[in-house]
Amino acid sequence: MALAFDDFGRPFIILREQESKSRLRGLDAHKANVAAGKAVARSLRTSLGPKGMDKILQSPDGDVTISNCSTALSHSPPPNDGATILEQMDVDNQIAKLMVELSRSQDYEIGDGTTGVVVLAGSLLEQAEKLLERGIQPIRIAEGYEMASKIAFDHLEHISTRFEFTAANIEPLVQTCMTTLSSKIVNRCKRMLAEIAVRAVLAVADLERKDVNLDLIKVDGKVGGKLEDTELIYGIAVDKDMSHPQMPKRIEDANIAILTCPFEPPKPKTKHKVDIDTVEKFQTMRGQEQKYFDEMVQKCKDVGATLVICQWGFDDEANHLLMQRNLPAVRWVGGVELELIAIATGGRIVPRFQELTPDKLGQAGLVREKSFGTTKDRMLCIERCANSRAVTIFIRGGNKMMIEEAK
């Protein structure tokens, strides 16, 4: 131990404890790493299977979450599978972190078997420990496991059964999907959810190439209603509604103008202010504003737009004028959603009214406003888009946890 002083003259003590620390090498290091992996697997093992028990997880700030249980004591949705339990566990050891990564990659690639894969890895480590004690080199053990996995894979290929399906006969796919939903909280609606999942995948799948772009399937949910109200929308669902309550709620064969310019008169770039001291001056300024709005709405009408989707808001004056001119509009649509709508409908995002032309409009077979719940929440469904097979699975549920589980 030694005394030293910092730049401000404050004393601090240096403790020399390096001699008391030891570094594990060889077999001891292997055993320590195996023990860490086994500890993670052991903590998950009891939650596996039909008699699996729930886990109580306490966060650093004292929030308590019960896994596999509908009565969560925290605000976040409770975990039900291995990947989510491990995400919420505070793991320090590097080997234990590898187990968490293993579970996460299983969840990303397959979406199921997250607990089983960790338990299996823990069991393999347990068997490896016995081989290490007999003096077998770790690389040899790893090679043995590699050979064993090939034999197991070949055996699975040998005993597997092939199910033939077509776009008309999807029953084999629905039956397969139902088996993976049996262990989840949503198993009471597994038939309906399995059909929705299969129809969503087939809507975006290229059966000739046997390729599925899962990014085209958007999974969205809103609290309220029951799980049976879940539906598949062949298009894009946006959490917005028409800007005026008297605008039409259903537009067929819509020509959509996608704008990033606001329905507002241009703001002066200088810092000068305008003093209005007479009624005549006010009337002149109001007339000028009215003219601006008039021109903007007329430009949209001239190019043949039947729906305007705008990134920014517009005031009541412009809103009223749009309603009078029978031009439905949606405001405050986010940038990501705007891009998604543009890709799906084959439209172009227009930054200025002067650049609006008929070839920049997007096409959709049906645009409808959907209302639900006791609070009359509303959202916009853009269906039968010209340029995309994108679909949206819209989930309903009594609370946030049910929706997260269904997702």
From TrEMBL:
Q: GO molecular-function annotation terms?
A: ATP binding; ATP hydrolysis activity; ATP-dependent protein folding chaperone; unfolded protein binding
InterPro entries this protein is in?
Answer: Chaperone_TCP-1, Chaperonin_TCP-1_CS, Cpn60/GroEL/TCP-1, GroEL-like_apical_dom_sf, GROEL-like_equatorial_sf, TCP-1-like_intermed_sf
Print the keywords alphabetically: ATP-binding, Chaperone, Cytoplasm, Nucleotide-binding
KW Cytoplasm (keyword) present: yes
Task: Give a GO cellular-component term.
Answer: chaperonin-containing T-complex
Compartments, as annotated in UniProt: Cytoplasm
Task: Please indicate if the UniProt record lists Cell wall biogenesis/degradation as a keyword.
Answer: no
Belongs to which family? Belongs to the TCP-1 chaperonin family.
Q: What is this protein called?
A: T-complex protein 1 subunit epsilon
